C-alpha cells in the first residue's frame, strides 16, 4: 500500500485563505496540531466530525468539500486498495455526512428548547404583571380619579424580580446626583467634565462586568 499524504492539498487550501503555517491553522481552527498530522496522513478517515467542521470553517470551505478533497484523492493513491476497502471508506464518508446532518438538527432542536425554557421562565417571573396589570389599567380608564401610584407596583415588582433573576443591576436611581463618568453616563444635553455633578434622568443597567445601557443624565447648573 502506497504512502498517503494530503499535505499538498492542505497547503493549497491554507494559501487561499492566507494561513502561512500548520501552527497558524491549528490556532485559527482551534484544533491540535496532532489532528492536522492525522488529516495529512489519513485524510478524513477516523477523524471526529467536530474537528472536521472547525477545519472547514477555518479553510472557508464547506464540510462536504473538505470530505471530498481529503477522501477521493486517497482512492487515486491507493492503487492496491481492494473494492471492498473502497466501499467501506465510502460508507464511512456517508456516515460522517449523516452524523453532521444529525448534529445540525440536534443543535436546532436544542435552540428551540432553550428558547422555550427562557420564555417560560420569563413569563413566570412576569405572571403578576400579565394577570393583574390589564385589569388595573381597565379600572383606571373607567375611573379617571384612580391614583396611578396604585398601578406602579404591578409593573415595578415583576420587573425588579426579572432583572434580579438575570443578574441585571441599575447604575443609579432616577433623580440621583453623581459625578459624571462618560463610561457609565450619556449626556442628554449640554456638556460636562469628568467628575462634575450630573442628574440621572433615565437609569442605565449593567449585567456583571458587561455594560448594557449607559444612564442618561443632564448637567446640573452651578448654583449662584
UniProtKB/TrEMBL annotation:
<protein>
    <submittedName>
        <fullName>Nucleotide exchange factor GrpE</fullName>
    </submittedName>
</protein>
<keyword id="KW-0175">Coiled coil</keyword>
<dbReference type="InterPro" id="IPR001387">
    <property type="entry name" value="Cro/C1-type_HTH"/>
</dbReference>
<dbReference type="InterPro" id="IPR010982">
    <property type="entry name" value="Lambda_DNA-bd_dom_sf"/>
</dbReference>
<dbReference type="InterPro" id="IPR000740">
    <property type="entry name" value="GrpE"/>
</dbReference>
<dbReference type="Pfam" id="PF01025">
    <property type="entry name" value="GrpE"/>
</dbReference>
<dbReference type="Pfam" id="PF13443">
    <property type="entry name" value="HTH_26"/>
</dbReference>
<feature type="coiled-coil region">
    <location>
        <begin position="79"/>
        <end position="117"/>
    </location>
</feature>
<feature type="domain" description="HTH cro/C1-type">
    <location>
        <begin position="49"/>
        <end position="66"/>
    </location>
</feature>
Amino acid at each position: 500500500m502506497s504512502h498517503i499524504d494530503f499535505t499538498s492539498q492542505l497547503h493549497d487550501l491554507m494559501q487561499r485563505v492566507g494561513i502561512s503555517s500548520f501552527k497558524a491553522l491549528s490556532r485559527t481552527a482551534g484544533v491540535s496540531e496532532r489532528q492536522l498530522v492525522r488529516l495529512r496522513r489519513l485524510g478524513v478517515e477516523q477523524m471526529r466530525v467536530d474537528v472536521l467542521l472547525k477545519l472547514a470553517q477555518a479553510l472557508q470551505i464547506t464540510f462536504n468539500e473538505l470530505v471530498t478533497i481529503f477522501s477521493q484523492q486517497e482512492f487515486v493513491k491507493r492503487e492496491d486498495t481492494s473494492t471492498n476497502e473502497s466501499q467501506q471508506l465510502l460508507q464511512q464518508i456517508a456516515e460522517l455526512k449523516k452524523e453532521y446532518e444529525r448534529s445540525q438538527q440536534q443543535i436546532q432542536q436544542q435552540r428551540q428548547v432553550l428558547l422555550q425554557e427562557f420564555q417560560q421562565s420569563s413569563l413566570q417571573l412576569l405572571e403578576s404583571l400579565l394577570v393583574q396589570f390589564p385589569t388595573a389599567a381597565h379600572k383606571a380608564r373607567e375611573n379617571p380619579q384612580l391614583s396611578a401610584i396604585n398601578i406602579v407596583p404591578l409593573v415595578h415588582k415583576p420587573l425588579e424580580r426579572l432583572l434580579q433573576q438575570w443578574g441585571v443591576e441599575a447604575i443609579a436611581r432616577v433623580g440621583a446626583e453623581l459625578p459624571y463618568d462618560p463610561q457609565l453616563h450619556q449626556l442628554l444635553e449640554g456638556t460636562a467634565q469628568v467628575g462634575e455633578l450630573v442628574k440621572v434622568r433615565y437609569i442605565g443597567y449593567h449585567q456583571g462586568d458587561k455594560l448594557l445601557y449607559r444612564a442618561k443624565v443632564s448637567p446640573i447648573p452651578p448654583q449662584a
